[in-house]
What does this fold into?
Amino acid sequence: MSRYLDLLKGMLGAAPKRPEKVSEKVQKIMFLKYEDKDRYIKEKLHARDHHIVSHKWRNRRWAVLIATNLLFVFSFWLDIQILEGALTASRFVGFHLIDLNSALHVMLAHKHIIVNLFIGTFTVFLLWVLLGGRSFCSWVCPYHLLAEWTEKLHLWLVDRKIVTDHEFHRGTRTVFWLLFALLSVVTGYTIFETISPTGILSRALIYGPGLALGWIFLLLLFEVFWSRRAWCRYVCPIGLTYGAVGALSPLQITYHVEHCFHEGDCRKVCLVPHVLDVTVKGRAAEETLGLGPDCTRCGLCVDICPTGALRYEVKGLSKLL
Amino acid sequence: MSENEPRPAAHKPAMSIEKAQKARRKFLQSVGLTAGIVGISLLGYIPVTSARTTRLRPPGALDEADFLSSCIKCGQCVQVCPVAAIKLGDIDDGFGLGVPYIAARDQACDFSCDAVQCILACPTGSLTYHKPDFLGVRAGAPLAHAPILKAKENDAEPSLNLKERFGVARLARPESCLAVQGKGFKGQARGPAFKGEMRYVDVDRWAPIPVRDHPYERDICDLCVTECPIKDAISLQPFVNEAGDQRFMPVVQEQCVGCGVCEMICPVEPAAIVVDAQAVWKGAAR
It folds into this structure.
């Protein structure tokens, strides 16, 4: 329970804590792991040598993300009418689907909820409780994909010492969430929607480009030259909304300390490296741990881990199988 | 491999000056980021408060402020419109970004969907048949009775489920009106390049066609009157001008809902008759 609270606090911006108590089983695992240092290093190098670098989950995720967005596009362009609307609100073969953050802001600004709005919001809520909350970010949000591509440019520039990554406090996102909610209530306008790259990009894909894409371009420039993945990491309230929903989700990426060499490759590729703090030597209190609500379930860590210490798991289901 | 280095003792040493400075810088930068992003988001107020453009909203739209707050910016109304009259606002519309509007001169709402599909499509009630009671009704906005759609006049239910107008037409430039000048009109109402569409019941009740494919021939131009989709919303009335000639003038009636078809079809450039977006009925002597 206390880990659960710590994970929520971590999502809101708190720095990860060292565990107060490490279970006996984990202590034993760690003891055995480091008993013979030469063997440990040998095993580590062996694992690296035999690691077939795969982009399995990344490719699957990109395919799903692109397919979902194309389904929106073609539903309108080709009039196939399967998924009509945009990411903020749509109908899937007639059923209302409404983005949780957009719905929240409409409710806060307009202060009136009609039945369709409630139905659509509730359906999407259930969907993302099952599918892992922030998996919306990495598996659906079109800005995530663009940002992921430009991140490569940023890392390339960092590598050549042309730019450096300027980190902000992760709690900034929580402040943004509260500020935008407050602004919606006070002004009566859904102000966040005006600058939300998710909505802007989704509409641009479906209804055609506009000046608003200039804003997306500026954001990407900022991320390339100033701060890595700044929008998703420090600003976007949509991520926090879905993160809160995913806190209840059975779909998680789990960490298995037994298989880990604590090398930290996973943390280098991660959008939210604080969720992988457990992979630091001595931070895992239990044998198996879920990464928590802020994890976007993108699977980059699963792909990069040479020893399979990080895996997709569905709570309850994995035990049944 | 830094992970293999021995860890310091569990208690934290006092923060070094360098570390404290770094934390302070990070905090200030975070504050800067917050102020910057919120500041930029509030720029959306400028187009809204300056009312630079008062947009014609789709039928059934709530009053402007309520419309902007309740619209979820999904464009489902855009997708169902058979004549593609509905467009979405861009970032220079401020908080109107992604909010639907109609540019009547380019493509007006001619109600060729019969049932006001955009209202049916709206998931948040921004476009609605039944305005919730707690929202006020502006004087002059309600229609005296449900507007009768000329195309449905012989149906069992000839009226549109619209309680309020979304604009009012106005003869803005009587001097350029062909009827006022005693002129007729022959040919394509808006020329060969015009892309706008309309539903012509005598051509095909269910399929709108380009206006350019439906040429007209009138002794006295009365396109705004004959093409108006709503019954009793506009009429051509005789008058005697200063020179003592018998002339005609289109006169907007109280049943005008503000769809903008008259503005779209008006063959002179710029249009002699325009629709005032979000306007209310202020009496016949306008």
Q: What stands out?
A: The beta strands of chain A are 83-86, 89-92, 95-98, 251-256, 288-290, 310-314. Chain A is about 55% helix and 10% strand.
